[in-house]
Specification:
2 copies of one chain form a homodimer. Chain A is mainly alpha-helical. Chain A is built from 16 helices and 5 strands. Chain A starts with 33 loop residues before the first strand and ends in a 5-residue tail after the last helix. Bound molecules: zinc ion (4 copies). One zinc ion (ZN) binds next to helix 2 of chain A. Chain A binds a DNA duplex through strand 1 and helix 1. Chains A, B: It holds the Pfam family Hormone_recep.
Chain lengths: 450, 450
DNA sequence: GAATGAGGTCACAAGGTCAG
DNA sequence: CTGACCTTGTGACCTCATTC
């Protein structure tokens, strides 16, 4: 009969993103149109064939130039030696490659991780400890064996999407499981950060609160003028010589310090409590918490930021205007953060989404060297599955929304990197006061790996 | 045996196999039998080797005559100097040549473009802006960065056909995408030109309509005789002297003018709405619309023409007999158009094919100088993919049909060139009345390149 | 049944060869 | 020198095992 479906023209149209999943980034080797993971890396059909051929018949390619030719779209001539070199540098290899269908969650996770690796070929190739490939290389389930594993047993099969609809009351076990996990995460968040829910449920009062902060700032401004612009150096000199606190900077520091100590304590408690984290060794937990600090805060408190009024505050935060914050941190960076918070607001995240996202961003395995990367990777997979399930049942465009969320996650990571630098500067200037706030200090001192 | 396995095309038997694409035109240099693209141009083996050799050992050929010898498909007697010159004039060059296999759509596009260049060597070589080689030379998209591109993605307009999935329910994503694009194009056409569909669905009533027009013409003819043959000059003289409209010419002009204004407005709206066009800058859009005007109309309204009765008309057109039209345009040209319309009718184009063809002919990048030729080229590739897909699923001889369609497109382009000249004459004679119809005026004023 | 990636096939265009 | 034919790297498309 008709059959005859799939054929021709597949590749030409892959350029356009598919709606149901996170979009595939371009070929890591040549920037052409990618068609999935090949030998462990997202590449185009051409680079895939090239690499396969290279493995097959060990051609001794020689670069005619300096071994650093750019590999662009290879439809035009390219240096084969450098192309192959780049393939290896990106981690392409024959072994441990995944086969068969991906669950949506796994696929999403793999792509996100690949994206977060952008422009890091060399590092990876040098360090040779490529955790980051875990997810699409030999993700394999050893699971089975282990008796322990995560709150919710094994069953890493996960939703399957597809049916998922349950208007009739009945609900498959897996769905129940995911639903429970979501509820639990939200509850944990509610318990540890009871105020966060208010940002979702009382947006008007939050708005008023922000206006008040702004009001107070204006009054202060009128009383004392705008000449608060004492530089960090000037301030420290005055303080050293006179012991005075000319612009309440120290008071603010202490406020912030106390607030952060409490906040961080709750982060730790959150991690202790949420499903799956209990079984992770504490060294890894500590690393994960430190590495995701900025993002974890941002996705919890983006609604506490008002980029128009340039204020930030809430019942569980230190209220402050950007002019206060910039006494400690780079104003540019603060503004970037505010802009980012704005973009999150536009997404209109729900509290469930927020809790799930925060769980996901806690469990990126490629932020640092971990003792149990697979375990944590599987955990993240679970959270991603929950998010996908939640979107499928609560959004009319789940694929698009998922992509949008992961796009934000991606951007947040780059901000997070900036934050580490900013924190270094902060510590340099204010480290002499930090000893009273050990948790904060530890958080600030995190500089990348360990 | 049977086993329906799929090839590039339908699989009646396995005999078909061959990728019946558009036939390859003869060698651009010597008119011999071509063997594909060589150094960017469709040539024969001989010319390919000749050009390669010429690049290798830079012989200084000298023409014994006047540097304009004809190059023929003979083994001996070709002037090497002129042959090489012609090679260069046609755009042959070593750089940026495609490697590897072609996708069906790309190959089709490349050949079509090559054909449309016939007899234009010199122009191309002078302008040195050889857009037309884009498709087989470094077509590729740098895309990557752009949030980009084309079609579906948001589908912010129009029905978008949500379901659209055919009887059997499931369908691979890529196919769904192509199908959606086709549906969307058809819908756009339906919305902007609601009457076009009637030409497809009520051929009998169209036929009757045409007969009525002819009837009226005959009646008028009997009443007033056939001596309406006042020439343009005579008419204008009478009009200038008396202000009279002896043969209703001015009334017809106004009718036509109003009709065209509306039609062109719908062309613009069509372009605003169809997937992919939204992201093209308006300067390019304007150029494309103007350059394809004639063809776009023809492929939309060929069924409104009856070459036997020599009439043209429909609900959204100005009904007229050839004797009316020839008051404004060259009768020869009108007859050519009618003949062409007839050939289109014989093809029995479906409404989907029509919509796709119209999208394709809007996006030829070699009609004029464009700001974003690659983008538009990629867009056209998309439309061509859709057409190929549609033919594969709806025609029993997709390859043949594709070739036939592109053959018509090719002929249409030459008519389009004639049309530009005809329009110049028209403007010359009737420009003094055109100011009330600014869109029409702009369309008519188009003379090739901006 | 649907999706995915390894491996395979062969269309395609350079570049080379060698009788004419 | 010419051009039919061959060799080679390439990449679009297909098949199939695997996994969900
Ligand atoms: Zn590539
Ligand atoms: Zn090189
Ligand atoms: Zn030739
Ligand atoms: Zn000559």
């Amino acid at each position: 009969m008709k059959t005859s479906t799939n054929q021709g023209l597949t590749t030409t149209d892959r350029t356009v993103t598919t709606y149901t999943t996170v979009p595939l980034p371009p070929c890591k080797v040549c920037s052409g149109t990618s068609t999935g993971f090949h030998f462990g890396v997202i590449t185009c059909e051409a680079c895939k064939a090239f690499f396969r051929r290279a493995l097959l018949q060990k051609q001794n390619y020689k670069c005619a130039k300096d071994d650093n030719c750019a590999i662009t779209d290879t439809r035009l001539g390219n240096c084969s030696a450098c192309r192959l070199k780049k393939c290896f540098a990106l981690g392409m290899s024959k072994g441990g490659v995944r086969r068969g269908r991906y669950s949506i969650a796994l696929r999403t996770k793999a792509i996100i991780e690949a994206r977060s690796l952008e422009g890091r070929e060399i590092i990876v190739s040098m360090s040779s400890s490529s955790y980051s490939y875990e997810s699409h290389k030999a993700v394999q389930q050893k699971t089975k064996k282990e008796p322990m594993d995560i709150s919710d047993s094994d069953s890493n099969s996960l939703l399957e999407s597809e049916d998922s609809k349950s208007p009739t009351g009945y609900m498959p076990e897996e769905e129940v499981e995911l639903k429970n996990l979501i509820d639990t995460l939200v509850s944990c968040q509610d318990i540890m950060y009871p105020h966060i829910r208010k940002y979702f449920e009382n947006k008007e009062s939050v708005q008023k609160y922000h206006e008040q902060i702004h009001e107070r700032y204006k009054i202060k401004q009128e009383m004392f003028g705008t000449e608060n612009n004492i530089s960090t150096e000037e301030f420290q000199q005055i303080f050293a010589e006179t012991g005075l606190d000319p612009d309440d900077r120290l008071t603010m520091f202490d406020q912030k310090g106390r607030s952060m100590e409490h906040y961080i304590q709750q982060v730790i408690n959150f991690a202790k409590v949420i499903p799956g984290f209990k079984s992770i060794n504490s060294r890894d937990v500590a690393k994960l918490l430190k590495a995701s600090h900025y993002e974890f805060w941002m996705f919890g408190y983006f609604q506490a930021i008002d980029s128009k009024l340039q204020v930030c505050g809430g019942e569980d935060l230190v209220d402050s205007h950007i002019s206060d914050m910039s006494k400690f941190f780079s104003e540019d960076f603060i503004k970037e953060g505010m802009k980012f918070a704005d973009s999150l607001k536009q997404l209109q995240l729900s509290i469930e989404e927020t809790a799930l996202i925060r769980a996901i961003l806690l469990t990126f395995t490629d932020r640092c060297t971990l003792d149990e990367p697979e375990k944590i990777g599987n955990l993240q997979l679970k959270y991603i599955s929950c998010l996908i399930y939640h979107l499928q049942t609560h959004s009319d465009q789940p694929g698009k929304r998922l992509a949008a969320i992961f796009d934000r996650l991606y951007v947040a990571r780059s901000l997070s990197h900036r934050n580490i630098e900013v924190n270094q500067e902060f510590l340099h200037s204010w480290g002499f006061l930090i000893h009273e706030y050990p948790l904060w200090k530890e958080m600030l001192a995190y500089s990348g790996n360990e």
